[in-house]
Amino acid sequence: MHPMLKPALRRGWRDLSTVQFGVAPAHALTLGPMDTATSSFLTLLDGTRGLPMLRAEAQRMGLPDGHVDKLLGELSRAGLLDDSTGGGPAADSLRKRGTVMDRLRPDLASLSLLSPGPGEAIDKLAARRAMRVRVQGAGRVGAALASVLAGAGVGRVDVMDGGQVEPWDVAPCGLPIESIGERRDTTARRFVRQWAPDRPPRPSRSAPVAPSSPGAVTAVPGTREGEAGLSLVIIAPRDGLAAYAPDPATVEDLLASGTPHLYAGVIEGTGVVGPLVLPGATACAGCLFQQRTDRDPTWPRMLAQWRSGHARHVPACDLALSTAVAGLAAGHALAFLDGVSSACAGARWEASVPGFEWHARPVWPHPACPCGAGAQVKGDQVTVGQEPHDTMAG
Asked: Which is it for the CA torsion 238, 239, 245, 250, positive or negative?
């Protein structure tokens, strides 16, 4: 082990014996009281020294026997300590790819804030490389989302869409202007490869799925053609209605194969992220449809009209909002892939222009939905026909 203080957290002295790690309240904490010799010893925790050398340095500085191990234990329990040589074989392989690591260092630093154990952050980063994600849709949301996932180290990001790139498809964070007139799927895949820090690993039908999230059930993809090895599918259609009111029939294969999937899109100036569907465990598109129908019996009739109508105009898709949707969806997707419990599991986040205030709307499993998630609802936790109260986040 080569201990190092997590470089993502800035350090500052609140007084002569108390040091604060971190600026923002989400991850900041203080450590003390600390004597002068111990505070000087902290500067040696830069990942270049192993434990024997650190113990020897501490002895030369006059620190008592056992002090180093006690200090390192406290720092580790507080989530402040990392290991510059930690992680498994995949992490060691990633470290050897200097150019790739330089691209991913900001992501590694961010992961270290969420990974308390030394070496856990680079393990998660290396695990991303073996994962496969499919993005369905290459419009303003889908193309940007796919490029973010690839740039964050997800090894294989497939993009599916039809038709040609239209002038209104291009965006600063998505498809480039010079791609107008080209095939959407071909252009999006080329764009994704451009932003990937490394070549994707060879496709494997036994590629690992996302690790289990706390409190959630990890769904294991089946062996259907096109589904094997998928860690996650993100449905980001250019038609925002398909994200706001998704058709359950379009995801039957994903539900049958147990493939986790996430919705994201923009409709009429409203951005939508979620729900993240863990088949058999959380609410799906069918649950969403059943809930809305319980509240509004005319919903199926209205939805049928909206779906059957031919769009005559370019859909409203605010550039800033679509970029925000892509970023939020990518963040939730990466959290799920890294094994962190996602706030999109069983919820949908919405924001509208011009306020851009995100609201979380719960999506409960519905007892009448054949997905099976409703079987986990016990007692009177959810009353059919009653809309849960919204929670808000600024």
From this structure: negative
- Supply the pLDDT for residue 376: 61
Domain ranges of the chain: 3-85, 130-392
Report the predicted TM-score, pTM, of the whole model to 2 decimal places. 0.85
The chain-wide mean pLDDT, for the chain, equals 86
Query: pLDDT by residue (tens digit) across 25-77?
Result: 989 999 888 888 888 899 999 999 999 999 999 999 989 989 999 999 999 98
Q: How far apart are CA 264 and CA 145, in angstroms?
A: 9
Distance of alpha carbon 33 from alpha carbon 31, whole angstroms: 7
Query: What residues have CB less than 8 Å from 74, skipping those under 6 apart?
Result: 31
Place of tokens 């002569």: 16
Q: Sheet with 270-277: list strands edge to edge.
A: 156-160, 132-136, 232-235, 261-267, 270-277, 347-352, 359-362, 391-392
Q: How many residues does the chain have?
A: 394
The fold of the 130-392 domain, in CATH, is Rossmann fold (3.40.50)
Contact 6, 13 (CB under 8 A): no
Burial class (CB in 10 A: 0-12, 13-18, 19+), 103: middle
How do residues 276-293 score in pLDDT, each as one tens digit?
999 999 999 999 999 999
Fold of domain 3-85: Outer Surface Protein A; domain 3 (3.90.930)
